[in-house]
Specification:
about 190 residues, about 45% helix
């Protein structure tokens, strides 16, 4: 009689994890990639490109890793917990365009503006931002987001001084000023 407990899955080292992250982010056209690695820790941050969820899904050998994400909209959150030997921190800020696309998709999903003072609504927006736009199914929303960003005043785009929450609130205010229906009509006319 043979007893099989199962194969031991190799645990990725910090260096292997960092290399896999860097390779995936470069393939996903991320920008401003920053990696910090020690023997038991990896910190990664990037702009544009893959979402935190997409990166998490392709990480190699996540056993024994405590994996946390961070986004200004919702703060810190745990992707994988439990017994761990290593720690991975993933941070991804969003561009004004990505926030505008999230704002348009949020408005489409909930048919109301967001209340940036409510944490639950920011979490809903974060979920939208983390779910990738699947090809042409969001082309109308992409065009609406482009128009929304271009309608902002130059001073409204200074993201160095505004938080992501303030930028989201400004985008919703601007959408109300311009008019959702006007943005939709202009974008739809470019589709046809």
């Amino acid at each position: 009689m043979e007893i099989s407990i199962g194969k031991r899955v190799p645990v990725a080292s910090s260096l292997e994890m960092a290399e896999a992250i860097e390779k995936y982010l470069e393939q996903g056209k991320a920008s401003e990639i920053t990696l910090f690695t020690t023997q038991n820790e990896v910190k990664a941050s990037w702009c544009l490109g893959p979402t935190i969820s997409e990166l998490f899904d392709v990480l190699p050998s996540k056993q024994k890793w405590l994996i946390r994400g961070h986004c200004e909209l919702v703060g810190g959150f745990t992707l994988q917990d439990g017994r761990h030997k290593y720690e991975l921190s993933l941070t991804r800020p969003y561009s004004v365009y990505e926030l505008a696309l999230g704002v348009v998709r949020y408005r489409n999903a909930y048919n109301r503006p967001i209340n940036a003072d409510k944490e639950i609504e920011l979490r809903d927006l974060f979920q939208i931002l983390e779910s990738p736009a699947n090809g042409s199914s969001y082309r109308l929303a992409e065009l609406m987001a482009e128009d929304l960003v271009s309608s902002l005043h130059r001073t409204d785009l200074s993201t160095n001084t505004k938080s992501e929450v303030e930028t989201v609130a400004e985008l919703f205010r601007r959408m109300d000023e311009v008019g959702y229906d006007r943005l939709w009509t202009a974008a739809f006319s470019r589709l046809t």
